[in-house]
Amino acid sequence: MRLRIILLVLAISSLILVSFLVPLALLLQTFAADRATSAATAQAQWLAPLVATLKPADLSLAIARVNAQDSQETTTVFLPGGQRLGVQAPVSDATGVARTGSSVTRRVAGGEQILVSVQGLAKGTAVIETFVPDSKLRQGVARAWLVLCLIGIGLIALSVLVSAQLARSLLIPLAAVARASELLADGDLTARASDTGPPEVRQVSRGLNRLAARIGELLAHERETLADLSHQLRTPLTALRIDAESLRDEAEMSQLTSDVDALTRRVNELIRAARRPSASGGRIACDAAQVVRDRAAFWQPLAEDQDRFMAIEIETDWLPVGVPAEDLAACVDILLENVFAHTPEGVALGVRLARRAAGGGWLTVADDGPGFDNADLVSRGSSAGGSTGLGLDIARRIAEASGGSLTIGRSPRGGAAITLALGPTAAPEETARRPGRNGRSKHWRHARPADARLSTELAEWSAIVGHDVNA
Known about the structure:
Elements: H1 2-53, H2 56-69, E1 74-78, E2 84-86, H3 93-98, E3 104-108, E4 111-118, E5 126-133, H4 134-137, H5 141-185, H6 199-232, H7 234-245, H8 250-275, E6 286-287, H9 288-305, E7 310-314, E8 320-321, H10 325-342, E9 349-355, E10 361-367, H11 391-401, E11 405-410, E12 416-422, E13 448-449, H12 455-465
Parallel strand pairs: 7-9
Antiparallel strand pairs: 1-2, 1-5, 3-4, 4-5, 6-8, 9-10, 10-12, 11-12, 11-13
């Protein structure tokens, strides 16, 4: 944009200068020619009285003195008897016209002729002819044109400098507004545009700042509302705990009380998560290996109770990803809960975590169940199993917030396979590989992802698993 403004000002100033300097240059040329012609005419008129009073010898000396003063101009006097004094110029048609008593100025090759008629002589009419060459007519014109060109170049350079400063005064505030909008798009709601620049830019900055403040207020209100709604669950939980403690069976009371406590802790976590401000730039790192290991250990007793074979494969003891630990734990719980809720008891499942070459990790949960018959399960509120339809959408949004993605496919036995690509952390040094054991399971086979957009990542995943996922 700066270049366009400079080019626009350059074009306008060039047109103005050309329309001004070209006529001025032509006027200077005409003025120089008129000045030389007027000087030659005045000189001829000065000689006219001398022609009428001096003898030919004296007149010849006067003409020689005049020619000596200016080597460029030549003066000739044609006397009535045919005698020529001064420069021996040829008799032309204009000389005959001047003998009739008319003074003549005409253009000839190489300059101009000025002929002045001198009447009142005894033998007839004399003619004074002065030749002014082109060099005399254009004297000083080239220098004047050079000065005009230098003035024009200086004015153009000045216009370029002024336009550059003007563009700078416009673009710097606009660049600040653009940076603030990019920070807001990245989730930094504290970013504000500086209130500087022209009035229009300041108006845009103030509008963007008001929008950012309003978004922050709306998000804060949403978090508080969600926290209030989650807090309202404590009342029925308290009543449920009182009912559980009133049970006479000690084992049932202990089990039910434990379940109520777990649910209470989960509600407290929801309240804290709801009141947690949004991330303001950068990705929060957590150890995905530890989170997946803990959540798999939490769900494994249920798998044993339902007679499910559960393969857990975690390639490394340390795998930092750009997802908060609470969000990643929620993702693992969502994926495992879908398996337990929507597949019959006894169906095997597997959890696998591996490192991505681009940073971050791969998290895959697959089963040997009936699989998905709806390709649009990730859409918010879409469910074919009677659930809320929010789980996979939550997992997808968490993965995409880290710079990753979610892919739904089928396992080799026809079951479901959900793969989360978890993005890296903001700090590269946090992703340094730490020494750890390799815990690959011999019972693991990867599912076939269905999203062709991730072909590059699928090739990388195929190399990790050891077989072609697109086969």
